[in-house]
Design goal:
There is one protein chain. The protein is an alpha+beta fold. It has a single domain (2-189), classed as Histidine kinase-like ATPase, C-terminal domain (Heat Shock Protein 90, 2-Layer Sandwich). It contains 6 helices and 8 strands. The protein has helices at residues 2-17, 23-37, 39-59, 67-85, 107-118, 155-168; strands at residues 64-66, 89-93, 101-104, 127-134, 137-143, 173-176, 180-185, 188-189.
Amino acid sequence: MNIQISKKEAEYLQLKQQVNPHFLFNNLNTLISFIEIDPKKAIEFGHHLSNTYRHYLKNQNDDFVLLKEELEFIKEYLEIYKAKFENGFTFEIIAVPKENDYILSFSLQEIIDNVFKHNNIDENSPMEITISSSDNGLSIENSVSNKFSEQSTQVGLENINKRYKILTNKEIQIFNNTKTYQITLPILKLEA
């Protein structure tokens, strides 16, 4: 029994370590380019970057985070993307978290990163992102404008799903058609 638990813990830690891909490096390069082009925008971007990195450092060792705090974080995080892509996308957060609602740490950020990684961002046809909640979980839906004709490997989503399964025996849900892509994360009720 203890060997099985240790194996699951090791697998989970390995999955968790894959979560933070070059976040700071990529955004520091963006900040540098804004400093050269638009110093006022660089200051605003720097504030958003600082707040998101502070959130990352605060929660990097936690398996679950309060949904309310994660939604505040993701709004700040989307503002970083807004600085990069301006009118290339819109977002709306209409989720209403309850007091003891939690989600898997960094899962929402990974999904948002995937949205931008796999879609064209075009001001003439802005992508729409909506984050909502229901009894089924937290849903992240975006309009589809695929960058690549080949299918995604879905390694990031697989990582999130495996972490949910290891810790909670629950799985994420994926709904995909030609116009929208939606992922629903299980919301957990935990006592603080």
